[in-house]
């Protein structure tokens, strides 16, 4: 990324922060949070703390960085090194990313490419470029099917929290991540003191990975005389699913149980939930790869992740693109750009190419 492109990106992001800075969600206890940011061109700056929302916003405007982060933990001394911060508790957070959800369409839009010669091919990514031996990287495309799948998993996280953990719906905030997924923040103080292992148990429960094997569940169901949905939690989910689908089902009970689990689990990223010292993208700020906003979602059913979070302008910009696979914004395809060419794109679409270092502003 050359200096001209860095400056252009910074200006595009700053223009949004001047206009949309009011939408940044600082918590009331801002002085107890750790902040961090990544400037365009790289290098994470962490262990920052601000006395007030105004002070934090002023720094965001000044830096207009690629990414802004804030801890879900509260600390006595947020700017000290991790083991001297004095951890006071952290909100429970879940991360859903379309990249982790197995959808068939991925074969069509995910690929690997070589950073050096721009050869590309289907996943799995070879350790090195098969043509020139250069460094290979993965490219994850975005499509409505994947985004809908992520939405389904995020909705199920909320259902697990409400139905199985007794969380009040008003305590759950759902955010679009700014890329291909959702973050759920739980403002319920019962969870705040939980350590990493306890958070991991909740995540594994939602993933359905703490359940007995499906043949054991099927054997238990066969022994029971009752039919219809029974019990609570996963028992109710599985018995309900079996009851609903058993008529005219051709497969075994074990297979039906497996399907019941697979269709009702929420594939949260456990490593995110268990990290109690993490900094998360701050709500209302822009994603460093896409320029889309991490945005609060009021109604997940109605939310369109291809429209609302696209907050950068449509002002056209000329860029020299080395290579970029087909990508999608506002339900519109851009690219693919398979060989070096100069193109004109709306600002909101140009950002993804530039942040990946696969093009420069001309
Ligand atoms: Zn290559
Ligand atoms: Zn897809």
Strand residue percentage: 15-25%
Q: Find the count of extended strands (DSSP E, 2+ residues).
A: 18
Helix and strand pattern = HEEHEEEEHEEEHEEHHHHHEEEEEEHE
Main pleated sheet: 4 strands, antiparallel
Structural class: alpha+beta
* End-to-end gap: 12 Å
* Cross-sheet strand order for the largest sheet: 2-1-3-12
Annotation field: number of helices: 10
Secondary structure: helix percent = 25-40%
Low-confidence stretches: none
Question: What does this protein structure show overall?
Answer:
With 362 residues, this protein is α+β, with helices and mostly antiparallel strands. It is 32% helix and 21% strand. The chain is built from ten helices and 18 strands. It has helices at 3-20, 53-63, 106-109, 144-165, 196-207, 214-223, 233-245, 253-264, 270-274, 347-355, and strands at residues 35-38, 45-48, 67-71, 73-75, 87-90, 92-97, 111-114, 120-122, 136-139, 172-176, 181-186, 279-281, 295-297, 316-321, 327-329, 332-334, 341-346, 359-361. The strands form six sheets. The protein has a four-stranded antiparallel beta sheet, with no helix packed on it. A four-stranded antiparallel beta sheet has the order 6-11-10-13. A three-stranded antiparallel beta sheet has the order 8-7-9. Helix 1 (3-20) packs antiparallel against helix 2 and helix 7 (233-245) packs across helix 8 (253-264). The longest helix has 22 residues, at 144-165. The two termini are 12 Å apart. The structure holds zinc ion (2 copies). The site of one zinc ion (ZN) has 7 residues, from helix 3 and helix 4. The site of one zinc ion (ZN) has 8 residues, from loops.
